[in-house]
Design goal:
Helix content: over 70%
Largest sheet: none
Shape: globular
Structural class: mainly alpha
Strand content: under 5%
Order of helices and strands: HHHHHHHH
Oligomer: single chain
Length: 187
Amino acid sequence: MTAPRDGDVGAPARWRPVLFSFLEILPLSVFVVFARRAIPGEIDTWRQGFVVAGTVAALMFVVRRVLKTRFTPIVLGANFYLAAGAVAFIVNAAWVLAIYRSLRESAMFVAILLTGAVLAACAPNGFADAPNPDRRRIRLGSTILLIATLGAIGVSIVFRGRVGFGGIMPFVALMIIQKSTSAWQRR
């Protein structure tokens, strides 16, 4: 690979979406590292995971705001989940921690569902985050994603306690559905 030449402004611009895609899932990746090594019932690993990943999520909110870029809606909900969990551990919000403890992986998908519902109702591009002059298409795309998120909640409940099947796989499936719905919505 050769270095960019003078006047070759396209090279860094081509890598920017790839870099941002990696950076936006960094908080969740950090959290998964902690989750994979957590011992059931041991709270310290979860506390560390939420505080570290929630801090990274907060930093990503700031970075995205400064650079004027947007999160993928699914990742936005996941980052809200991490940030809320970090705050709950820091201020010892027992009721939030009790909800997180009882819902386990499903809590993240509930946060994504709430984020999606707000985006579907308030954002001009809906939950799929893709522009289209046809408002019906935007509503349909948002509805598809909301239903898929409900499905992810169901899967995470069935595979409760299994990070891979209850958290990672439904999240990846949601990301694929979001990208597909977004591409369809842009047509």
